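dumping this here before i forget
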Amino acid sequence: MFNKWGMNFKGKNCGCGCNEVITEPVITNCIEKEFVHEVPHICPIHTHVINRHIYNHTYTPQYTCSEEDQIINNDNGNCCNFR
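structure:
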């Protein structure tokens, strides 16, 4: 078995005269994650409608006519005046 430098590695004896395993420095992989959250917002929009009823008044003359009969009696006396 070979290590990363191409040296023969058998068990705990690394070939350098020591009987311990060499622990290399830890390689830390940093993984950044982004979590996108959708936050719904309610934006109330109210429409108020005002209905105006406008009445334009017009005036049209409506003519009428009436008639009255009067009786006038001209009485120049009575029959006693002829005697």
